[in-house]
Task: structure prediction
Amino acid sequence: MTNGTAGPEEATPVEQLSSLILSSTGSLPPDPSPLFLCNFLLCTSVLTKLDLPLALRKHSRYWSLRGELLGPSALLLHAPSPLAMLLEGSPFLVAPAGARNSLGQRLIYARPRFLDWTVYSTASAVACYWFVFERLLLEDPIVAERGIVAVDNLTGVGLQNMNPAFTCAAVRSISVMPIRWEGAYRVVNNNDLFHSLFFYVNKFLPRRLLAKMDVLGSKHERLLEVLPEEAIPEALGGTLKVEGDAI
Result:
């Protein structure tokens, strides 16, 4: 990425963004990690041209909503993480290692049937949601630039898994994540409950996400349009083993 002709001692793009954050807020970024800051540049750049003001706005919106939902804290990547252990027992959202399409877009795999509200609180589920994305952004630097492919498997989902407060927080979170939403969003194994709820939820989803949404029902073979067989979970007709799918 470039922003005009760079001199030998010119600040790097990440340093420029950090300086902009400091001048606009009076303090350093909540997490000044160059790797994490770079995500805001990657998801807002066009080809090799930077858009520093847009990256600054994206960064501001990210930490503003994050603070509202999670409180003031740094990234949720402390080891051993209680969030990682919670997700291990009730894995409603996972990013299987190495599962991506030919464009380098990573698979995000959601299984709302694991949202057991005797195990999760609204706050802990929201924190786990952010944890999965933050870990993905730090582990896979090209995610911000190339985007993701999301697959939502609604097998076994019922009213007992529904939580309007969590759904609202998750939908709001989507709009501020430093990720290009370039890949498709596929919903599979949906039932009548999904159609009833979607009528309400779609009013709050970003238009660009709705435009890429495809409700497949049981037509799992159409996942091959966006993912290779080795990146499609076995439960959906592919060869990718995802822990918890047999439950």
